[in-house]
TrEMBL record:
Residues 95-263 form the N-acetyltransferase domain. The lineage of its organism: Eukaryota, Viridiplantae, Streptophyta, Embryophyta, Tracheophyta. GO terms for molecular function: acyltransferase activity, transferring groups other than amino-acyl groups. It comes from Tagetes erecta. Gene3D superfamilies: 3.40.630.30. It comes from the Eukaryota. InterPro entries: Acyl_CoA_acyltransferase (IPR016181), GNAT_dom (IPR000182). GO terms for cellular component: chloroplast. This is N-acetyltransferase domain-containing protein.
Amino acid sequence: MAVLTLHSLPLQSVNARSNRHRCDYGGRRRLTVVSHQQELCSEFERIKIDKSALKIEEASSDSELWATSLLRVRSFYDFKSTFAIQDHKKYLAEREFEALKERVAGTKKGEKVSCINATLPLSQAKSFPEELCSSCKFSHDGEDRVVVGTLDLNQCLSLPNEITGMKPKGIGGDFARAYLSNVCVAHECQRNGLGSLLVEKSKLVAEDWGISDLYVHVAVDNAPAKNLYMKCGFVYESEEAAWQARFLDRPRRLLLWMGVPNSYNW
């Protein structure tokens, strides 16, 4: 399962062995995974997590956003060289952190972004790799927690270099549309249903915002991500032109749509 979508990262980003692509979102650089190869099931030991200790909530502090940025770098990039790797990871995380803070702060008119995270208490992460616990840790209400999954919910007209959703129609309808992006789950924590839980939480937040139509982009060759989204209720709406994918040097993308229940009918 991997999901990261550029702006609407499909759950494909869960696999760090993907072809990565950076895209500009609102004038900022943003992490993205544009294709997903086969899951490397034998490479990572899957950890069964205690869901009773799991929290799926909107990020509320800079320390949590920093931990989120480190998880995204860990998930979206495949570092083949060890030369100055820590400095490079720090640089990428700092860039994503600044961009994420700016997006969540809502400084760009007409756009609203929420970072939604899945977190576990550090005390429940004894079986996790030390590197994951140390890099993706933050403190909340006196408790140390670890970010193990994340996504962004973006209320906006469109995402850069991505297909634009066609629903809803009518005056003001554009502001009732939202996109998922930067979806990822720590490699070791996949297959615990975290991707589905993150999507379900995003639907609740979208409903509170008055969103009626939710979108996500996914690479055509990313079967795990497509399966995940469709199980969550997304359906096919359109697909990227082959020439555009070639121009952007990435696999062609599908645009998936879901109606958000109980929201204002445009």
